[in-house]
Amino acid sequence: MKTWFILSIWLICTLPAIAQKGKNKPTRVSAKIEVLMEGNYSKDALKQKAIEAARIQALGEEFGYAIIQGINTQTKSQEGGTVLTQNTLTEVSNTLVKGEWIEDDKGFPKTKFVVREAGNDQQIWLLCEVSGKARAITEAPITFKSFTYKCQEPDKCPTTTFKHGESMFLYFQSPIKGFLSVYMQENGKVYRLLPYRQMQGEYASHVPVEADKPYQLFAPNHTNYFEGFHMVDEYGLEVHQDGTPLANLVFVVFSTKPFSKPILVADEQGILTIDQKPFQNWLNEQKGLDKAFQYTRLAVSITE
Cα–chain-centroid distance for residue 257? Predict the structure, then answer.
Protein backbone atom coordinates (compact mmCIF):
# COMPACT_ATOMS: atom_id res chain seq x y z
CA MET A 1 0.00 0.00 0.00
CA LYS A 2 1.50 3.34 -1.05
CA THR A 3 0.63 6.78 0.30
CA TRP A 4 1.73 10.11 -1.22
CA PHE A 5 2.73 13.05 0.94
CA ILE A 6 3.41 16.74 0.42
CA LEU A 7 6.08 17.96 2.85
CA SER A 8 7.57 21.23 4.40
CA ILE A 9 11.40 21.91 5.34
CA TRP A 10 12.80 22.04 8.88
CA LEU A 11 16.54 22.14 9.57
CA ILE A 12 18.59 23.17 12.62
CA CYS A 13 21.74 25.13 13.44
CA THR A 14 24.32 25.60 16.23
CA LEU A 15 26.56 28.04 18.13
CA PRO A 16 29.57 27.36 20.46
CA ALA A 17 28.77 25.28 23.51
CA ILE A 18 28.32 26.78 26.96
CA ALA A 19 28.60 24.71 30.14
CA GLN A 20 25.55 22.59 30.92
CA LYS A 21 23.44 23.76 33.85
CA GLY A 22 22.89 20.24 35.15
CA LYS A 23 19.35 20.90 36.34
CA ASN A 24 16.36 19.10 34.93
CA LYS A 25 13.63 21.50 36.02
CA PRO A 26 12.12 23.75 33.33
CA THR A 27 13.77 27.10 32.67
CA ARG A 28 12.91 29.93 30.28
CA VAL A 29 15.17 30.38 27.25
CA SER A 30 15.11 32.70 24.22
CA ALA A 31 17.05 33.60 21.08
CA LYS A 32 16.94 35.82 17.99
CA ILE A 33 18.32 34.98 14.56
CA GLU A 34 18.33 36.51 11.07
CA VAL A 35 18.31 34.32 7.96
CA LEU A 36 19.09 35.45 4.42
CA MET A 37 16.47 34.09 2.02
CA GLU A 38 18.36 32.38 -0.80
CA GLY A 39 18.04 29.25 -2.87
CA ASN A 40 14.84 27.66 -4.12
CA TYR A 41 12.87 27.60 -0.87
CA SER A 42 9.44 28.93 0.01
CA LYS A 43 8.89 31.52 2.73
CA ASP A 44 6.93 29.03 4.84
CA ALA A 45 9.76 26.49 4.61
CA LEU A 46 12.31 29.12 5.64
CA LYS A 47 10.14 30.10 8.62
CA GLN A 48 10.07 26.50 9.86
CA LYS A 49 13.83 26.18 9.50
CA ALA A 50 14.51 29.49 11.24
CA ILE A 51 12.25 28.68 14.19
CA GLU A 52 14.03 25.40 14.81
CA ALA A 53 17.42 27.06 14.35
CA ALA A 54 16.54 29.68 16.95
CA ARG A 55 15.33 27.04 19.38
CA ILE A 56 18.56 25.10 18.97
CA GLN A 57 20.56 28.26 19.60
CA ALA A 58 18.57 29.02 22.76
CA LEU A 59 19.02 25.46 24.05
CA GLY A 60 22.72 25.41 23.22
CA GLU A 61 23.43 28.70 24.96
CA GLU A 62 21.59 27.54 28.08
CA PHE A 63 22.59 23.87 28.33
CA GLY A 64 25.56 23.40 25.96
CA TYR A 65 26.26 21.22 22.94
CA ALA A 66 27.22 17.56 22.69
CA ILE A 67 28.27 17.98 19.02
CA ILE A 68 29.57 21.25 17.59
CA GLN A 69 29.44 22.00 13.87
CA GLY A 70 29.69 25.16 11.82
CA ILE A 71 30.68 27.41 14.72
CA ASN A 72 32.73 29.70 12.46
CA THR A 73 29.87 30.45 10.07
CA GLN A 74 27.73 32.71 12.25
CA THR A 75 28.08 36.44 12.94
CA LYS A 76 26.17 38.92 15.06
CA SER A 77 23.92 41.56 13.55
CA GLN A 78 23.90 45.16 14.75
CA GLU A 79 20.82 44.33 16.81
CA GLY A 80 22.61 41.44 18.49
CA GLY A 81 20.86 38.63 16.65
CA THR A 82 22.71 35.74 14.99
CA VAL A 83 22.97 36.00 11.20
CA LEU A 84 22.61 32.71 9.33
CA THR A 85 22.59 31.74 5.66
CA GLN A 86 21.01 28.79 3.87
CA ASN A 87 24.37 27.00 3.79
CA THR A 88 24.82 27.51 7.52
CA LEU A 89 21.45 25.91 8.29
CA THR A 90 22.30 22.91 6.14
CA GLU A 91 25.85 22.44 7.46
CA VAL A 92 24.81 22.24 11.10
CA SER A 93 21.65 20.19 10.73
CA ASN A 94 23.12 17.32 12.78
CA THR A 95 23.88 19.34 15.91
CA LEU A 96 22.94 17.78 19.24
CA VAL A 97 22.18 20.06 22.18
CA LYS A 98 22.05 19.05 25.84
CA GLY A 99 18.54 20.37 26.32
CA GLU A 100 15.04 19.92 24.94
CA TRP A 101 12.27 22.38 24.11
CA ILE A 102 9.08 21.98 26.16
CA GLU A 103 6.71 24.71 24.96
CA ASP A 104 6.58 28.18 23.41
CA ASP A 105 5.69 31.27 25.40
CA LYS A 106 2.43 32.95 24.39
CA GLY A 107 2.86 34.95 21.19
CA PHE A 108 6.02 33.09 20.12
CA PRO A 109 7.67 32.26 17.82
CA LYS A 110 7.75 35.62 16.02
CA THR A 111 8.85 35.91 12.39
CA LYS A 112 9.10 38.89 10.04
CA PHE A 113 10.44 39.30 6.50
CA VAL A 114 12.32 42.52 5.72
CA VAL A 115 13.98 43.91 2.57
CA ARG A 116 17.52 45.28 2.90
CA GLU A 117 19.74 47.13 0.44
CA ALA A 118 22.87 45.24 -0.64
CA GLY A 119 24.88 47.49 -2.95
CA ASN A 120 22.84 47.87 -6.13
CA ASP A 121 20.64 44.94 -5.18
CA GLN A 122 18.09 44.03 -2.52
CA GLN A 123 17.98 41.06 -0.19
CA ILE A 124 15.09 39.45 1.68
CA TRP A 125 15.87 38.58 5.30
CA LEU A 126 13.80 36.69 7.86
CA LEU A 127 13.92 37.91 11.46
CA CYS A 128 13.00 35.19 13.95
CA GLU A 129 12.61 35.30 17.73
CA VAL A 130 11.73 32.40 20.03
CA SER A 131 10.99 32.24 23.74
CA GLY A 132 9.77 29.32 25.81
CA LYS A 133 10.34 26.70 28.47
CA ALA A 134 13.10 24.09 28.18
CA ARG A 135 14.91 21.57 30.36
CA ALA A 136 18.33 19.96 30.45
CA ILE A 137 19.02 16.45 29.22
CA THR A 138 20.84 14.89 32.16
CA GLU A 139 21.35 11.30 30.97
CA ALA A 140 23.17 10.03 27.91
CA PRO A 141 20.66 8.84 25.28
CA ILE A 142 20.72 5.42 23.65
CA THR A 143 22.68 5.83 20.43
CA PHE A 144 20.44 4.23 17.82
CA LYS A 145 21.08 4.60 14.10
CA SER A 146 18.34 5.98 11.88
CA PHE A 147 18.28 7.69 8.48
CA THR A 148 16.11 8.05 5.40
CA TYR A 149 17.13 6.61 2.02
CA LYS A 150 15.68 6.08 -1.47
CA CYS A 151 16.95 2.84 -3.09
CA GLN A 152 17.16 -0.87 -2.31
CA GLU A 153 20.51 -0.63 -0.50
CA PRO A 154 20.44 1.93 2.36
CA ASP A 155 24.19 2.45 2.61
CA LYS A 156 24.35 3.41 -1.08
CA CYS A 157 21.60 6.03 -1.08
CA PRO A 158 21.11 7.72 2.32
CA THR A 159 19.49 11.10 1.73
CA THR A 160 17.24 13.75 3.19
CA THR A 161 16.48 15.25 -0.23
CA PHE A 162 14.03 13.50 -2.54
CA LYS A 163 12.72 14.18 -6.03
CA HIS A 164 9.03 14.42 -6.86
CA GLY A 165 7.60 10.91 -7.13
CA GLU A 166 10.35 9.11 -5.20
CA SER A 167 9.63 6.78 -2.29
CA MET A 168 11.04 7.38 1.18
CA PHE A 169 12.45 4.46 3.18
CA LEU A 170 13.75 4.48 6.76
CA TYR A 171 16.71 2.57 8.22
CA PHE A 172 16.75 1.81 11.95
CA GLN A 173 19.16 -0.09 14.21
CA SER A 174 19.49 -0.05 18.00
CA PRO A 175 22.20 -1.46 20.30
CA ILE A 176 19.50 -2.81 22.63
CA LYS A 177 16.02 -4.20 22.13
CA GLY A 178 13.04 -1.96 22.58
CA PHE A 179 9.93 -0.46 21.01
CA LEU A 180 9.67 1.80 17.97
CA SER A 181 7.19 4.17 16.39
CA VAL A 182 7.56 6.69 13.54
CA TYR A 183 5.63 9.92 12.88
CA MET A 184 5.81 12.62 10.23
CA GLN A 185 4.89 16.28 10.65
CA GLU A 186 3.31 18.17 7.76
CA ASN A 187 1.79 21.68 7.94
CA GLY A 188 0.79 21.48 11.60
CA LYS A 189 -0.53 17.92 11.29
CA VAL A 190 1.38 14.82 12.44
CA TYR A 191 0.87 11.46 10.69
CA ARG A 192 1.81 8.12 12.22
CA LEU A 193 3.80 6.03 9.73
CA LEU A 194 4.71 3.11 12.00
CA PRO A 195 3.06 0.87 13.24
CA TYR A 196 1.60 0.28 9.77
CA ARG A 197 -2.10 0.94 9.24
CA GLN A 198 -3.14 -2.76 9.30
CA MET A 199 -1.42 -3.39 12.65
CA GLN A 200 -3.61 -3.93 15.71
CA GLY A 201 -3.54 -5.50 19.17
CA GLU A 202 -0.06 -5.62 20.69
CA TYR A 203 1.21 -3.47 17.81
CA ALA A 204 -1.33 -0.68 18.34
CA SER A 205 1.16 1.75 19.93
CA HIS A 206 4.59 0.55 18.75
CA VAL A 207 6.48 -2.32 17.17
CA PRO A 208 9.17 -4.41 18.93
CA VAL A 209 12.73 -4.21 17.61
CA GLU A 210 15.65 -6.50 18.39
CA ALA A 211 19.13 -5.47 19.47
CA ASP A 212 21.62 -4.89 16.64
CA LYS A 213 19.15 -5.97 13.95
CA PRO A 214 18.94 -3.65 10.91
CA TYR A 215 15.41 -2.66 9.87
CA GLN A 216 14.50 -1.32 6.41
CA LEU A 217 11.07 0.20 6.94
CA PHE A 218 8.42 1.23 4.37
CA ALA A 219 10.25 -1.00 1.86
CA PRO A 220 8.04 -3.58 0.02
CA ASN A 221 10.88 -6.12 -0.15
CA HIS A 222 11.12 -6.21 3.68
CA THR A 223 7.79 -7.45 5.01
CA ASN A 224 8.70 -10.11 7.59
CA TYR A 225 9.95 -8.08 10.56
CA PHE A 226 6.77 -8.31 12.64
CA GLU A 227 5.05 -11.61 13.29
CA GLY A 228 1.54 -11.84 11.86
CA PHE A 229 1.88 -8.79 9.59
CA HIS A 230 3.40 -9.17 6.15
CA MET A 231 2.46 -5.91 4.47
CA VAL A 232 4.10 -2.50 4.60
CA ASP A 233 2.87 1.02 3.95
CA GLU A 234 4.95 2.76 1.29
CA TYR A 235 5.32 6.54 1.28
CA GLY A 236 5.84 8.49 -1.92
CA LEU A 237 6.76 12.17 -1.86
CA GLU A 238 5.19 14.92 -3.98
CA VAL A 239 5.47 18.69 -4.32
CA HIS A 240 2.53 21.08 -4.77
CA GLN A 241 1.32 21.75 -8.28
CA ASP A 242 3.36 24.96 -8.52
CA GLY A 243 6.56 22.94 -7.97
CA THR A 244 7.59 24.73 -4.76
CA PRO A 245 10.30 22.70 -2.91
CA LEU A 246 8.90 21.26 0.31
CA ALA A 247 10.00 19.14 3.25
CA ASN A 248 8.97 17.74 6.59
CA LEU A 249 10.06 16.35 9.93
CA VAL A 250 10.19 12.61 10.55
CA PHE A 251 10.10 11.67 14.26
CA VAL A 252 11.75 8.34 15.13
CA VAL A 253 10.49 7.41 18.61
CA PHE A 254 12.22 4.67 20.64
CA SER A 255 12.12 3.32 24.19
CA THR A 256 13.37 0.24 26.00
CA LYS A 257 9.92 0.09 27.66
CA PRO A 258 6.46 -0.18 26.08
CA PHE A 259 4.70 3.18 25.73
CA SER A 260 1.15 4.26 24.93
CA LYS A 261 0.38 6.12 21.73
CA PRO A 262 -1.35 9.52 21.80
CA ILE A 263 -5.01 9.90 20.80
CA LEU A 264 -5.10 9.56 17.00
CA VAL A 265 -7.80 10.15 14.37
CA ALA A 266 -7.89 8.45 10.96
CA ASP A 267 -7.91 10.70 7.88
CA GLU A 268 -9.60 9.93 4.55
CA GLN A 269 -6.73 7.59 3.60
CA GLY A 270 -6.91 5.70 6.88
CA ILE A 271 -3.66 7.20 8.21
CA LEU A 272 -3.78 8.00 11.93
CA THR A 273 -3.12 11.68 12.68
CA ILE A 274 -2.78 14.16 15.53
CA ASP A 275 -2.31 17.94 15.63
CA GLN A 276 1.19 19.25 16.20
CA LYS A 277 0.67 20.76 19.68
CA PRO A 278 -0.91 17.70 21.37
CA PHE A 279 1.74 15.54 19.68
CA GLN A 280 4.51 17.64 21.24
CA ASN A 281 2.69 17.48 24.59
CA TRP A 282 2.60 13.68 24.25
CA LEU A 283 6.34 13.54 23.58
CA ASN A 284 7.03 15.70 26.64
CA GLU A 285 4.73 13.64 28.86
CA GLN A 286 6.30 10.37 27.76
CA LYS A 287 9.81 11.69 28.39
CA GLY A 288 8.72 12.81 31.85
CA LEU A 289 7.32 9.36 32.68
CA ASP A 290 10.03 7.25 31.08
CA LYS A 291 13.73 8.13 31.15
CA ALA A 292 14.34 5.56 28.42
CA PHE A 293 11.88 7.27 26.05
CA GLN A 294 13.59 9.33 23.35
CA TYR A 295 13.21 10.51 19.80
CA THR A 296 15.16 12.05 16.97
CA ARG A 297 13.97 14.35 14.18
CA LEU A 298 15.01 13.87 10.55
CA ALA A 299 14.54 16.79 8.15
CA VAL A 300 13.34 15.54 4.77
CA SER A 301 12.98 17.84 1.75
CA ILE A 302 11.50 17.29 -1.71
CA THR A 303 12.05 19.10 -5.02
CA GLU A 304 10.78 18.70 -8.59
Answer: 22
